[in-house]
Amino acid sequence: MSLYAIGDLHLHFQAELKARDQKTSPLWRDHEQVFLKNCQKLIRPEDTLLLAGDHSWGRKLAECEQDLQYIIDLPGRKILLRGNHDMFWDAAKTAALNAQFEGRLNFLQNNYYAYGDYALVGTKGFTFEGPFYLDRRGRVIGWDHEQEEHAKKIVDRELTRLRLSFEAARQDGYRRFIMFLHYPPTNLLEKDSGFTRMAEEYGAEQVIYAHSHGEARFADSIHGSYHGVLYRLVSGDYLRWLPLRIL
To answer: What Cα–Cα distance (Å) separates residue 18 from each residue in 10, 151, 201?
Structure first.
């Protein structure tokens, strides 16, 4: 039994594809077929695959049916985290999604899932991504403070949701945690954040995140060990569509 993770599939079997990088980058060419073949070779029925957000370009559930069926047909147990492009998923209606897809898909939001003696906890997360103002050498010399204040409100909301996930698991007796985010835990200006501090507070062993895709974004946040927590990026193009074994 193994735990794997990957994010940013950005499936579009029914929705119009608008993202330039998916249209032009060789890494995205036929990525659905590449990913499917990798999963079929790697993942066994008893394994768990956590998909760390941005599953579909569809804006409504009806526009995501083929994308979600593609995920259902992948081997193993599938757990989905909410991403910023997952418009079909209203966070307040996660229980309804879990009821609708019971036995086929599991949606992680304000809850947790067990994996052996670990609890898999998580939320979409958020981080301020600018706009940043750069000098001629590419160094940050300023940023949009109004957008920063708006971002802080979203971060606070996501931290509340993450704590609900941790507490639900802890109340059920779990003391070992793997924490999942869609957004990176820090931005370019941060050494730590509310998300890193919460990971340390609950003793999470790993923080798994996505969202930073496109080669220019791979180094946006923490890689490796920081304050005793292992941070790992699992964006699909960063992993070249090969799910990363977490445990």
So the answer is: 11, 25, 40
Cα separation values, 241 from 62, 94, 204, 237, Å: 26, 27, 26, 6
| Pairwise CA distance, residues 81 & 182, whole Å | 7
Are residues 211 and 83 in contact, defined by beta-carbon separation less than 8 angstroms?
yes
Residue 235, sorted as left (phi over 0), alpha (psi -120 to 50) or beta, turns out to be: beta
Element (DSSP H or E) covering residue 161: helix 145-171
Q: What is the pLDDT of residues 130-145, one digit of tens each?
A: 777 777 877 777 777 7
pTM for the complete prediction?
Answer: 0.93
Report the alpha-carbon distance of residue 178 to residue 164 in Å, rounded.
15
CA-CA distance, 11 to 70, in Å (whole number)? 9
Token look-up 């956590």 returns 50
pLDDT over 90 at 45, yes or no: yes
Task: Categorize the per-residue pLDDT at 151 as very low, low, confident or very high, splitting at 50, 70 and 90.
Answer: confident
Pick from 65-69, 113-117, 128-132: least confident: 128-132
Distance between CA atoms of 243 and 185, rounded to whole angstroms?
A: 20
Q: What is the mean pLDDT of the chain?
A: 93
Cα→Cα distances 240→12, 21, 35, 235, Å: 18, 14, 8, 9
Using only the alpha carbons of the chain, give its radius of gyration. 17
Minimal CA–CA distance to 237: which of 6, 4, 3, 5?
A: 6
Strands 206-209 and 224-226: unpaired
